[in-house]
Amino acid sequence: MRYLTDRKRAVGKGASGTGTEHHWWMSASAVALAFMIPTWLYIVGTTLGADQQTVIATFASPFPAILTALIVIVGMQHFAKGTEVWIEDYVHGTAGKALKIAMHSLAYVIMATALYALGKMVFIGLLLGN
To answer: CA–CA distance from 10 to each of 24, 26, 61, 88 (Å)?
Structure first.
């Protein structure tokens, strides 16, 4: 028979049982975004004011396309998890559940839209031979 004290059951777990994992994921994604976003802003900044072919050629190349996709995916997951924590802290009941669903849905819609636009730019870049 295994004997677990209350402390042993609670170590490493939050109230939901996944608090530590959630905290580490949020910390890791924040650090990753802190390194990726300045690089991405430089790439976007160099294309500001350029014509459409230049922008498509820039984002059709592998590094900017992969970096943009990573920022969209990691950033929107970070947003969804962060708003979920905020909602759990301040909104309760059915309204909290509805807001969680709405925020996760918003994050996935933004992800899908951005990845579609990026894929379209890459595809057009391939057709143009860039």
So the answer is: 17, 21, 48, 20
